[in-house]
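Q: I have 53 residues here and want to know how they pack in 3D. Can you give me a structure?
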Amino acid sequence: MSILDIILAIFLPPVAVFLKKGAGKDFIINILLWVLLFGLGGIIHAFIVLSKK
């Protein structure tokens, strides 16, 4: 993970996931978690997605 990935994962998790995985199921899941869990769920999910190879 680069420093840009980390910054985006903290402040704009859906953008970080979109840049890494594209507009797929991970992106949709991240948007839902980000909205429904007031950001915290999206941040955690973004770090999980970005840490996978």
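Q: Anything worth noting?
A: The chain has a mean pLDDT of 94. Residues 3-51 form one domain.
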